[in-house]
Amino acid sequence: MHDLATVDLIRERLDVTYQAAMDALDEAEGDVVKALALLETSSGGGLQRFEEQIKEGVKRGLSGEELTLIRWKLLGQLVSELPVSLDGFAAVAVGILADLITSSTVETEYAAAVSNDGDDSAAANSH
62 Cβ partners below 8 Å, 6+ apart? Predict the structure, then answer.
């Protein structure tokens, strides 16, 4: 039996189900790093998995399948659902955008403001 914190750690890092996380821990005899490596290997790696998601979305969108629902999840929890009716290029575009957002890390960077009057103390004290 594995504790919830360990299973959640694996789920958060690789976006897998509880069952997949527990199975990997079983196979790795409780070693978290080994379980992570097993899951990465079985999923084909980050970029390869992303490429497959894009290909599948393009194939489905261009084959005439209709995109009918968009779900927004945050930390594995459902935040919102939006019923839609998209096909063709619109479905492909939304699918690619969703894959880009969920497969990316968003980073922010702030630059200190420098006043025009030559007083740099405001910039030096900003965070």
Answer: 88, 89, 92
